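REQUEST
  id: r-88c1
  op: predict_structure
  target: Small ribosomal subunit protein uS8
  payload:
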Amino acid sequence: MQLTDPIADLLTRIRNAHLARHKEVSIPASKMKAEILRILKEEGFIKDYIEEDKELKVYLKYYQGKPVIKGLKKISKPSRRVYVKAKEIPIVRNGLGIAILSTPKGILEGRQARKENIGGELICEVW
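RESPONSE
  id: r-88c1
  status: 200
  body:
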């Protein structure tokens, strides 16, 4: 089955797993998805992830029984790509969330891209 937007699929699977209170979720692997999950782990939104047999297994994080991730929003879509300059990178939920960008230096978190003065394609926002 060919997906038209694998990143939207990643975000949807994480969102659905949180709603069902699962501890983990499996996602078909790709380098871009692994980089997005690396950022989510560094920022404390997920416990961990591992790659095994062309799948990424994501271990979800909860705090007092509630999901740490309150919301996931895909910004750039296949039908409408959204590009931003370094000064236009949004501050998500007054700094409580993160923006994830695809830049010439790879997949970066919004604050890091702003610090390095690099713009790129705005992939998603997580809070």
